[in-house]
Design a protein that fits this description.
Layout: E1 16-20, E2 34-35, E3 38-43, E4 49-57, E5 63-69, E6 75-80, E7 86-89, E8 94-102, E9 108-114, E10 121-127, E11 130-134, E12 141-147, E13 153-158, E14 164-170, E15 173-177, E16 184-190, E17 196-201, E18 207-212, E19 215-218, E20 228-233, E21 239-244, E22 249-255, E23 258-261, E24 269-275, E25 280-286, E26 292-299
Parallel strand pairs: 1-15, 2-23
Antiparallel strand pairs: 3-26, 4-5, 5-6, 6-7, 8-9, 9-10, 10-11, 12-13, 13-14, 14-15, 16-17, 17-18, 18-19, 20-21, 21-22, 22-23, 24-25, 25-26
Length: 300
């Protein structure tokens, strides 16, 4: 799964108890996918670091994700601007920091792990000098994966019972997003229209989902042996995600009920991390031999 920090702590208000809304709907009908026609712009990790994950992309083309420090092997969050500037970020008193999403106003969403034992994970929102911790009430660990232009947050939490559930946070109110009988539900991304996408699972097989107005719709790439995870959704309802083999993640675009593969010529596989409201897609390209590049792409 994917889909997965930052300064002085200001807690968001916990104004209401969590509400669990789970409605089952059948999976949508799937058809065989063709390759999309994509134009890629690629980038490499800065010196001393390795690209770990390339996640969301904001409307101005800024990509967020995480790097691995080659010396300490710790995760460091980053933003990468459309003009090619890397900015690294590590949350205070943390051992690892991850960045997953960013809205059009430059508000970043992510998570960090405490440096002190037992190393709980906390969600955060970060912009400039303002750092806000987002912890789901009474949860052992919280992850924040995305924030939309309205400031609505989505993420996941674990309650200490080997179960992970998703949540949305809107106007201080938490709503739990938990697919019926699933062991894990990851709410990975949201748009301004209340649509949330992600993945749920009760086994080694992952299922992609769209959640809106309390209703789940399963969206799975056809005939994928290890399942599907949805990574991003824009305001037009266009979705990006990945389907899995035993070791690899293969990116796709999903629009109007049809899948298109996202393929970088000559790569071992190409994974997606997000999509903005202009249709710009972000992700990673993996080559035989271990080379990894980040990318943004426009696909038709």
């Amino acid at each position: 799964m994917q889909r997965e920090k930052k300064e002085e702590f200001m807690r968001l208000p916990h104004l209401a108890s969590a509400v669990i809304i789970t409605v089952f709907l059948p999976a949508v009908l799937m058809h065989a996918a063709e390759n999309a026609s994509c134009t890629f712009n690629t980038f490499s990790a800065p010196s001393g670091y390795t690209l770990s994950d390339v996640n969301g992309v904001s409307d101005d083309g800024t990509v967020v994700g995480q790097l691995v420090d080659n010396k300490t092997l710790e995760s460091v969050a980053f933003t990468y601007s459309a003009s090619g500037v890397f900015t690294k970020y590590t949350a205070p008193k943390s051992s690892n920091t991850w960045m997953y999403g960013r809205n059009g106003s430059g508000l970043n969403a992510g998570s960090y792990q405490d440096s002190a034992y037992p190393g709980h994970i906390h969600g955060f929102l970060w912009q400039g000098n303002q750092f806000t911790v987002v912890n789901y009430p009474k949860a052992s660990n919280s992850w924040v994966f995305d924030v939309n232009q309205l400031g609505d947050v989505v993420g996941s939490f674990s309650d200490g019972e080997s179960v992970t559930k998703g949540f949305s946070l809107v106007n201080g109110r938490y709503t739990t997003i938990a697919y019926p009988k699933a062991q894990t539900t990851y709410a990975q991304a949201n748009n301004n229209n209340g649509a949330v996408v992600g993945a749920y699972s009760s086994s080694s097989f992952s299922n992609g989902f769209l959640w809106q107005n309390g209703t789940f719709t399963t969206i799975n790439y056809p005939n994928s042996p290890y399942g599907t995870a949805l990574a991003g959704v824009n305001n037009s309802g266009v979705i990006v995600g990945n389907h899995f083999s035993a070791e690899d993640a293969f990116g796709f675009l999903y629009e109007n009920g049809a899948f298109e593969n996202i393929v970088y010529t000559g790569a071992k596989y190409t994974a997606t991390g997000g999509i903005n409201n202009n249709g710009l897609i972000s992700g990673q390209i993996y080559f035989k031999g271990g080379k990894i590049l980040g990318y943004t792409a426009v696909c038709k």
